[in-house]
Specification:
This protein is an alpha+beta fold. The protein has six helices and seven strands. It has a seven-stranded mixed sheet. A hairpin with a 4-residue loop joins strand 6 and strand 7.
């Protein structure tokens, strides 16, 4: 798909088509979105989704265009059923409204890293950092987001409901390890982990957590 503005996607791609044709076009875009997410996680594939545009920009474009497509379908009285992945993301974002604490362990003894802990008191956010292998906890007073509401909104933009539970780079057994645990007010947990491989939006997650990537870090960095 050529790059057009998300707001012109409807007029240039969907307008004038039957419901079945419109659904086919939207499915093409969903397929490209999935392809770009794989590209972020696995690195460039010369046989798939070839484009000079960085995958993170394309992912943002496809998500915005999907919102315009959804509104267009509703205006026509046509149904656009969400995919299983989209439903999982919607449900996870609803859970994020009940987030109690977040614990990220990133790195190892040899390459460094840290444990970053986020908790809340009302709308106040508390952030602490523990350098890997250390026991001293330091408060992060200059954390970029100062309230719970803003932090949750940023988390929702990462579409963590589309993450896999585990990520392993079979070609790099010594890849950088990481682990993330989210605890909710009903005492349920969501846990993710990986070694040498990361979710498509992990680099944005590290930025949100104010954590510097180690080495090459997530695959996204090769597109920066």
């Amino acid at each position: 798909m050529s790059m057009i503005g998300p707001n012109t996607y409807v007029s240039e791609v969907l307008d004038g088509k039957t419901m079945e044709q419109a659904l086919q076009e939207i499915e093409k875009m969903r397929k490209e979105l999935r392809c770009q997410k794989r590209k972020m996680e696995n690195g460039p594939d010369p046989n798939q989704c070839m484009t000079d545009v960085s995958p993170d920009m394309l992912i943002d474009f496809y998500r915005f265009a999907l919102e315009y497509a959804r509104s267009y379908m509703e205006s026509k009285g046509w149904e656009l059923p969400p995919t299983e992945e989209e439903l999982a993301d919607i449900k996870f974002n609803e859970r994020l409204d009940h987030l109690q604490a977040l614990n990220l362990i990133y790195g190892d003894t040899e390459r460094g890293g840290e444990q970053r802990i986020v908790s809340f008191s009302g709308n106040t956010i508390h952030v602490s950092a523990v350098p890997y292998g250390d026991t001293k906890v330091s408060d992060v007073s200059k954390y970029p987001i100062q309230d719970r509401e803003g932090f949750i909104l940023e988390l929702k933009e990462l579409h963590m409901g589309e993450w896999k539970k585990t990520y392993r780079n079979t070609k790099d057994p010594d890849g950088l390890p990481w682990k993330l645990q989210l605890r909710f007010t009903d005492d349920t947990l969501a846990e993710y982990s990986g070694k040498g491989k990361f979710p498509f939006s992990f680099n944005a997650f590290l930025l949100l957590m104010d954590v510097d990537p180690i080495g090459e870090g997530p695959q996204e960095l090769i597109y920066v």
